[in-house]
Amino acid sequence: MADTTDHSTTGANAPAYYVSTPIYYVNDRPHLGHAYTTVAGDVLTRWHRQRGEKVWYLTGTDEHGQKIMRTADANGVTPQEWCDKLVEEAWKPLWRHLEIANDDFIRTTEERHTARVQEFVQDLYDKGEIYKGGYSGPYCVGCEEFKLPSELLDGATEDEKLCSVHKRPVEWLEEENYFFRLSAYAERLLEFYAANPDFIQPASARNEVLRFVEQDLKDLSISRSTFNWGVPLPWDEKHVLYVWVDALQNYITAAGYGSDPERFAELWPASVHLVGKDILRFHAVIWPAMLMAAGLPLPKRVVANGWLMVGGEKMSKSNLTGIAPTDLTSHFGVDAYRYYFLRAIPFGTDGSFSWEDFTARYTSELANDFGNLASRVAAMVGKYFDGSLPAAVASGDAEQAVADGLAKAVAAADLKIGEELDFAGGIAAIFEFVKQVNGYLTEQEPWKVAKDDSEEGRARLATILYTAAEALRATAVLLNPVMPSTAEKLWVSLGAEAGLGALSAQTVATVADWGRLPAGSTVTKGEILFPRLEEKPAA
Ligand code: ME8
């Protein structure tokens, strides 16, 4: 399970920890589903940065193909105009709003992409991996994919068939086009999966892919000649490349394939391709086969997230069930948003969004358990020690138990978030620790100890408050990848920056070192981390 590659920042040209999201179709605005994958990748990469590793996080947009072309037509603009507008007005601003710290943003209409894609496919053509043939079959424009009989549902009439994902009629496509010899790779793919059991995650998704490849892998139609919104085939300009073959290559073109060999050596192969389970086959079958054909190394892992559902159906742009993330962030705030989906839905399984569940978790976990702890501790340091953090002069077993709890939380969170991509489990481990600190305060009753003016009483009170503040110092570091603004506010209110430097410079390796927060730090009450929610806005 663990990735044993050394991604340390010290080695010259050491491989980076490279994570990608799917590049999203810009036929419409982003919804919760897209943000789900992108936030997950952001938390994962922020976690690895916090380990002190060299990290590269890539996202972007998929701009060719029929779906985009038809949307642009329907809106009376060119596909390029449509993409430019959506990317600048909807996609990039949303990622900024959600504090996504991506290192690059690739658009498939960029020259740095299209030129390399042409070289890549020309190479495969020259090697005899691509041939001309004919194909006919049911095609779903929503998926941009030919469908198998098992993936179709009956429609309203005897002849009509529906795509099982989009529940909309498929179209019959009959074309002469170019094919990639995908079928020739079945054996090698199966050998690769066997030798790399962690390549596809979760296990349920892996089994599905294995069954698919074991059955009857067909060659892949990789060009279209009935429309022109795509990358022209360099040897036959009447054809454009099938949008998926173009899109998958973003992972290498953005990383410097064919343009910057040094950077490419540092970045490729990717550590993790994050994808939704709907597009796993493309990433776990077609993409690896294309890379094998090109003689390039394969990504280390493809990890599929489940679907966010609305009313029992996959939330989707095409079916107009997409909810805009800003509808939720305007009510709950960005950090709570980043937290909620990763905490509430085990990564890899489907989950339904519910306003009630979000509200309940916000109130009990974020506002009560965490936010109140932070404000109580700051208030008591203010009240009893004039805001100057006292030293822990009388630590005993109870304090040791808190320090031990922290060490346990750090180990669990590092494994779960950093390696297993079990975000819910990792966040739960951090919140177990928060709960432990709350329990510690309840038991120690500092508000009662404060009434004891003796030297012993003062020493006890100092120790309790130091312990709680030090626990919060560590919590700020652990939650920084998930809720960066909140963690920063807490860091500032603890006065940690003066003694420890910027929150962004803290590492997973030192977070459990008990006693880092210097006594004498100036603790201030600061902003309320999770204010009481307003009434739910009318729908
Ligand atoms: O498939 N629940 O783009 P896309 C969870 N351009 N995740 C969801 C989701 C939902 N309801 N809906 C979307 C494409 N996603 C291609 C990808 S990559 C070379 C090309 C997320 O705009 C999930 O990650 O349809 C899914 O794989 C992706 O958005 C699909 O976005």
UniProtKB/TrEMBL annotation:
A motif ('KMSKS' region) lies at residues 314-318. Keywords: Aminoacyl-tRNA synthetase, ATP-binding, Cytoplasm, Ligase, Metal-binding, Nucleotide-binding, Protein biosynthesis, Zinc. Transmembrane segments: none annotated. It catalyses: tRNA(Met) + L-methionine + ATP = L-methionyl-tRNA(Met) + AMP + diphosphate. One of its GO terms (cellular component) is cytoplasm. InterPro entries: Anticodon_Met, Met-tRNA_synth, Met-tRNA_synth_2, Methionyl/Leucyl_tRNA_Synth, MetRS_core, Rossmann-like_a/b/a_fold, tRNAsynth_Ia_anticodon-bd. It holds the Pfam family Anticodon_3. Its EC number is 6.1.1.10. Binds 1 zinc ion per subunit. Belongs to the class-I aminoacyl-tRNA synthetase family. MetG type 2A subfamily. HAMAP family: Met_tRNA_synth_type2. Is required not only for elongation of protein synthesis but also for the initiation of all mRNA translation through initiator tRNA(fMet) aminoacylation. This is Methionine--tRNA ligase. The gene is metG.
